[in-house]
Amino acid sequence: MVPSPLALLLALGAAATALAEPLRFVDCGSKDGSIQEVNVSPCPTQPCLLHKGTSYSINVTFSSKIESQGSKAKVYGEMMLVDVPFPIPEPDGCKSGIQCPIEKGRSYSYLNKLPVKSEYPSIKLVVKWELIDDQDQLLFCWKIPVEITS
């Protein structure tokens, strides 16, 4: 029996998901939500090696403790206790896998990309990722150590 293309696709998807290990992260003040899991792909070991000119997939599973009409992401590189803003292609959480309005008690998968530009310096730092609700509170905030490399 020859497996159908759909069965092969599902098997490949399951294998790819198995490779994305949840990361150890620091919760940096999630007030209005609770993080279940953070995945950065590809990042097989920590600190994550982020190669210049590459884009990384971000997937955060969290549950909301509040209702919110929308959400906005802010990303920083923490260097010597200073938060340097990192631009991301889509800061609107409602366009990043979250069905808005956000409902209290519901679980969500937030999906985004982290592009690492070629002109970034080769440096070790901490990435801080925030998702802010419409009351300017943190639905989630997490940090992971990374190393930007050529």
Automatic annotation (TrEMBL):
<dbReference type="InterPro" id="IPR003172">
    <property type="entry name" value="ML_dom"/>
</dbReference>
<comment type="similarity">
    <text>Belongs to the NPC2 family.</text>
</comment>
<keyword id="KW-0732">Signal</keyword>
<dbReference type="GO" id="GO:0032367">
    <property type="term" value="P:intracellular cholesterol transport"/>
</dbReference>
<dbReference type="InterPro" id="IPR033916">
    <property type="entry name" value="ML_Npc2-like"/>
</dbReference>
<dbReference type="GO" id="GO:0005576">
    <property type="term" value="C:extracellular region"/>
</dbReference>
<feature type="domain" description="MD-2-related lipid-recognition">
    <location>
        <begin position="25"/>
        <end position="146"/>
    </location>
</feature>
<dbReference type="GO" id="GO:0015485">
    <property type="term" value="F:cholesterol binding"/>
</dbReference>
<dbReference type="InterPro" id="IPR039670">
    <property type="entry name" value="NPC2-like"/>
</dbReference>
<keyword id="KW-1015">Disulfide bond</keyword>
<dbReference type="Pfam" id="PF02221">
    <property type="entry name" value="E1_DerP2_DerF2"/>
</dbReference>
<feature type="signal peptide">
    <location>
        <begin position="1"/>
        <end position="20"/>
    </location>
</feature>
<protein>
    <recommendedName>
        <fullName>NPC intracellular cholesterol transporter 2</fullName>
    </recommendedName>
</protein>
<dbReference type="GO" id="GO:0033344">
    <property type="term" value="P:cholesterol efflux"/>
</dbReference>
<keyword id="KW-0964">Secreted</keyword>
<dbReference type="InterPro" id="IPR014756">
    <property type="entry name" value="Ig_E-set"/>
</dbReference>
